[in-house]
Amino acid sequence: MKRFVFLMLVVFVNITHGQENLDFKLYETYNEGSNSFINNYKELYTYNTKGQLIETIGLNWYEEQDTWINDYKEEYFYDDKGNLISTVLYYGVSSTEKWQLYTKHDVVFNDQNLSSQFLSYGWKNSKWSLTYKEEVTYIGTKIDRILSYVLNDGKLELDMRFSFEYAGNFVLNYIGEALNNGSWDLDFKAQFKRNSKTNKIEEEIWESWNGYAWENDDTYIYKVDENLNRVEELFSYNDVPYDKKEFSFDKAISISKFYTPFNKNKNFVDLTVEDVRFYNKVLTEVNSSYDEETKSWSVSSRGTYHYSTDPPLGIDDNQDWSEVVIYPNPMLNEINFKLKEKSPAQVSIFDVNGRLIINENLDTIQNKLNVDMLQSGLYVCQVKMSNKLIRKHLVKK
Fold first, then answer.
1. pLDDT tens digits, 165-178
2. How far apart are CA 191 and CA 204, in angstroms?
């Protein structure tokens, strides 16, 4: 499986802040039995006046009690240069609705403002105990090597080392070796293939060493749009497709307008391993799973990004839909509209960028539209009646 040293998780976004926030992300799971989406998970974000993310709260949906339950909380701390120097993680204690300290991750910066150490602690016996350490060395501003130490019998011992190969200013690959009985053994390798014009990563290949040769474990294939937003992430395991994420955007609006969680590590050294994923305002993501037997994809969940002053598409899926029933959702080749009574109505279907794709009149109580021409993804359905205008998300398989 894909393995990152801590510093590989950094995403860099240069942001000029405005007054709007990405307040929360809502994830809903597709329920095949009811042919609908149900609440699953939510992340809430809090920022300081500099636009730095200072808190993330994760909540799980508890259907039996029709409420959200605390899952985890992260708090973030910065130095006067804007570097993220500490992250504290709590887990939720559902029986008391309180938070319990769990882990802490600290980053130490050297005189050149380069991250030189990563320290991980566990909360035990009412105090922090060091459990893991990484030491980073550089040649200029490029990482030369990372050494990692793990806790063994109460003390930190050298465990792995990571070496990097560059092509120009970009990481071409890095190799992890494990220390076994005083000698270094190959463990895993990560390769990064980039577009020759944009330098955006198009493919990541993660391999493990079996003692004789490299074996393919994980592959990530990325697609971008004309604005270099990452619109698709395809993950394969052992060369078999596994899951897929598809993102949609408002391409008229820059993500730099908002406070977002994407830039919490913005002043870490750019290791050129992770790309900036989003340049425009991200609206939705659709997650799909691959069925190897049928060789097909099916939608498993969806996520919507909610902003403080501009909720995506202004849609409330809990609106009163008693006057019209729409099914199935997700849809495949056709979609049905059943009106409560025969009256003038018009249906419009838009993509997430606001482009009108379908516009039809509903002439009878029972109406059927062909949607075979639509690509898989998230859409907005608008039904206009004489006394009401309602909107709803639709998903095309």
1. 998 888 899 999 99
2. 6
Q: Which CATH class is domain 315-396?
A: mainly beta
Predicted pLDDT of residue 97: 67
Peptide bond into 330 cis (omega under 30): yes
Q: Where are the domains of the chain?
A: 14-313, 315-396
CATH fold, domain 14-313, is Lipocalin (2.40.128)
**CB 25 within 8 Å of CB 305:** yes
3-state secondary structure at position 35: coil
Q: What is the rounded distance in angstroms from the CA atom of residue 360 to the CA atom of residue 345?
A: 9
Q: Is residue 96 classed exposed, middle or buried when 0-12, 13-18 and 19+ CB atoms within 10 A define those classes?
A: exposed
Between CA 288 and CA 243 the distance in angstroms is 6
3-state secondary structure 114-163: CEEEEEEEEEECCEEEEEEEEEEEEECCEEEEEEEEEEECCEEEEEEEEE
> What three-state secondary structure class fits 64?
helix
Answer with the residue of higher pLDDT: 118 or 272: 118
Q: Where are the beta strands (DSSP E) in 240-385?
A: 240-254, 258-259, 280-291, 296-307, 324-327, 334-339, 345-351, 356-362, 366-370, 377-385
For 59, 116, 160, 233, the CA distances from 6, given in Å and listed in that order, are 24, 12, 13, 21
Rounded CA-CA distance 3/9 in Å is: 10
Tokens of 209: 């060493």
pTM: 0.72
- Smallest Cα–Cα separation from 273: which of 146, 103, 134? 146
